[in-house]
Amino acid sequence: MSNVKIAEFTAPGIKNNAAKDAISVLDDRMVALIDLQLTLKHIHWNVVGPNFIGVHEMLDPQVEAVREMTDTIAERIATLGGVPVGTPKSIVERRRWDDYSVGKGLVTDHLTALDKVYNGVNEDHRKAIDTLSELDPVSEDMVTGQLAQLEQFQWFVRAHIESASGELKS
């Protein structure tokens, strides 16, 4: 399901074609963030082994923050005249990546996989920032702020799977 702009107006000062393009970029980020928050909760429920409780408790604040980011993006889509669609089927249809594959697993297995998830989300947020810089500085600023927080969350994850010499487990 593609995001269809149905309003006849957008935020004052932004051209309709720029708003439509910004909505498309924001929709992609919204899908990624919904997927990320569900993945984080899945890991929270299924992580086991040494350091279980530390990881289990580290993830809930990330879930809440990502949920807040999702809401902010959805509301920006609506502000620009778009329709934020967050139904499960529509999210899966618009997702460009494979589903998270680790079920019940050890801390290191989950965090190594989660690091890869953050790689994708954060790289795509950077690309979105570049695109939005030409379309809508408000959306660009919003996504930039989110990226700072997402990169910090990835740092938290990497601290668990990094060696003393700075190498990540693969």
Automatic annotation (TrEMBL):
NCBIfam families per UniProt? PRK09448.1
| The protein's name | DNA starvation/stationary phase protection protein Dps
Task: Tell me which residues make up the Ferritin/DPS domain.
Answer: 26-162
The portions of this protein that span the membrane are none
Q: Which organism is it from?
A: Alteromonas oceani
Q: Sorted alphabetically, which InterPro entries does this protein's record hold? A: DPS_DNA-bd (IPR002177), DPS_DNA-bd_CS (IPR023188), Ferritin-like (IPR012347), Ferritin-like_SF (IPR009078), Ferritin_DPS_dom (IPR008331)
The entry sums up its family as follows: Belongs to the Dps family.
